[in-house]
UniProtKB/TrEMBL annotation:
Family matches, as Pfam families: tRNA-synt_2d
Presence of the UniProt keyword NADP in the record: no
Official protein name in the record: phenylalanine--tRNA ligase
Superkingdom, natural source: Eukaryota
Record organism: Aegilops tauschii subsp. strangulata (Goatgrass)
Presence of the UniProt keyword Electron transport in the record: no
Family: Belongs to the class-II aminoacyl-tRNA synthetase family. Phe-tRNA synthetase alpha subunit type 2 subfamily.
Subcellular location(s) per record: Cytoplasm
Gene Ontology MF annotations: ATP binding; metal ion binding; phenylalanine-tRNA ligase activity; tRNA binding
EC number of the protein: 6.1.1.20
Keywords in alphabetical order: Aminoacyl-tRNA synthetase, ATP-binding, Cytoplasm, Ligase, Magnesium, Metal-binding, Nucleotide-binding, Protein biosynthesis
GO BP terms in the entry: phenylalanyl-tRNA aminoacylation
Amino acid sequence: MQELLKRVENGEDEVQEQLKRLEKGKVVPDLIKELKRRKLVTKEKVIWYSLKKGPEFVVKRKTLATDVTREHLKSGDWKDLEFKDYNYEAQGQPIAIGYSQPLLEVREAIQNIFLEMGFSEMPTNMFVESSFWNFDALFQPQQHPARDSHDTFFLKAPATTTQLPDDYLEKVKQVHQSGGYGSKGYGYDWKRDEAEKNLLRTHTTAVSARMLYKLAQEEHFAPNS
């Protein structure tokens, strides 16, 4: 029969004391290393949040208005509404760009066909035009509602032009006033001052009128080789 005897009067658990000190926040680097080596402690990441009432804290959530409707104006409710602030840094809706456009592809194909046949394109980069080429040469009567269908913007400076072919201008004048070439004309007093007014070109047909007159001055016309 074996007999157990105490070797010390009061036994102390040193490891337990070390763990208690660690729990109280008394961190000793060497102690932590030893406890981790013996797998008595493990390292964990703990995130704490501190919440408090903000300036916009409410017990009941309120929906902010974004638009003023007709009903708001009629009833007068708009006076008591709280509107949502504009976010000027918000991204707009992405624009759909960079895609192939079938009509542009067809136009380019037809354009290449005519260019390969020797034709050349009319210059359309002159955006200021006279009323003569924009309207009169195309036989739109002066002071007639037919011209009102265009968004016409007249120039202040230079307001008029004097670079008009007198011979052709006289022919256009006669057709407007009394007709010709199978036409009876419009029967009104055509005014050169109206034809000399400068404007922002309203259509590219005015360029066609200029080019046809220019080509008519040549003895022979043929596509570019």
